[in-house]
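Our collaborator T.R. sent over the components below with a one-line note: 'Predict the complex.' Nothing else. No constraints on interfaces, no templates requested, no preferences about which chain binds where. So this is a plain run: every listed entity goes in together, and whatever single assembly comes back becomes the starting point for the next discussion.
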Amino acid sequence: MNGMIAVFKRELASYFTTPVAYVFIVIFLIVANAFTFYLGNFYERGQADLASFFTFHPWLFLFLVPALSMRLWAEERKSGSIELLMTLPIKPWQSVLGKYLAAWAFTALAIALTFPIWITVNYLGSPDNGVILAAYLGSVLMAGGFLAVGSCISAITKNQVIAFILSVVVSLALLLAGLPLVLDVFSAWAPQALVDTIASLSFLTHFDSISKGVIDARDLVYFGLLIGFALYANTIILELKKAD
Amino acid sequence: MTAKIDCQGLTKQYGSLLAVDDLSFKVEPGEVLGFLGPNGAGKTTTMRIIAGFLAPTSGKVSVCGYDVEAEPIEAKRRIGYLPEGAPSYPEMTPREFLGFIADARGIPKADRRRRLEEVYGMLHLERVLDQSIETLSKGYRRRVGLAQAILHDPDVLLLDEPTDGLDPNQKHEVRQLIGGMAKSKIIVISTHLLEEVDAICTRAVVIARGKILADDTPAGLEARSKFHNAVSLKLADPSQLPAVRSEIAALPEVESTELDERSGRLTAFPRAGGRPLTPISRLAEQRGWALDELHLETGRLDEVFRTITGGATA
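Returned assembly:
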């Protein structure tokens, strides 16, 4: 437990001692707001809600979260510090969880810093704040899903560019799992049950329902299982190939 | 009493490459074991296996009675490890980095501050505590790595090339530090510097191609040298050399003589067990040779090292 907290604290602090944190937060806030106003037509819609804000989150995360997760393990491998970390009396799953939670806490902070748009919409009208809160929760959960997948992929390689590209591709596949683009690859040959299972893996469907204010246990379980599975795989990969 | 480090039949295979080949040895408290070998001999791989970073393909290691594979956390608690190249987190300062190590090792709050201060002092880190590690010189980075390894006062210290990249003063300091800690601990250092073995080790294990080729004290290794107890001398007047050489060669204690043409130094090698220094110096006095130089060779580790590992590196 001590070990996990130490890893968490070190990792979180490292975002702020390097420019990573500031660049990430500033870019995220600028792009999130630009999309809301220009692509989402926040004003023109004339509705007191944040649908035009949240609808772009999956696409923003698709590129920004892998940029964050790519360094989690690839950098440790590259610099050799993984040898130090893995010879400390900390269980591998504790290191994985500590690093992951630090990255997730950081992402949650970035998402929380979009609060001016919530103030804006409350100033302009009277939105359903319950729906907005649910959408924020969904957004944080989805970011956690992307991060877990990215962390797992980052453990495979010591090359951060490879980690980034692979994470984007896998995340895109997960994001679009419910759309014909992905399903058509399987529907020709795979049994219907498998196609349905793949369709049910889609981030978009699960995020959509939460962001509409519907907190369904199935959506929470989905993200929980996804994160749990990805981090479990992350730990196994780490134990199998520590050195190379 | 159980050995603190006990390796049995360690083998590590990377694809078709046999990096470590059936190594078995034990190390007892108070020993400073020097792992010697040419580059690529399997030193780092062996250290990594003992530290629990690599799993051996076959064989067992236990540290302080804990099997490194079965009870890794207990074993790692008792080990201080300086990996090759002293990796750390470059964006952190030594203060932050060592603070992290203290937390990760679960050093109790009451001791934490005292231990950190002690280690800063031992490695002279005070001046650079708040500078990021990436801006430090190689010597300081190595010291931060050493500080990290000794912070929790471990029973077993594994140091992979602890003085690599240090200047002679820093090497001397690090060796003194290691020597000062040696009494109660087990220290295993890997090195390809022979002077280091002479300076701090009580025992030297020479490995090449993953196999142990020699396991002896540094003095024992030196005794294997043909230079052991040999006598070198240099004459003030080189024209006397042929006569002097034949007289020395005729001594019963001398097996053979060798002349280094460039420096004009004559070396007399002893017959097995012979000690030709006294007869030679007596002879020099009787004949009134004018000597510039006369000294006893203790044995040359580099020559022994080359002889032992020569076949393996070819």
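Summary for T.R.: Chain B touches chain A at residues 48, 51-54, 72-74, 76-77, 79, 81, 83, 85, 87-92, 96, 100-101, 103-106, 132, 148 (CB under 8 Å).
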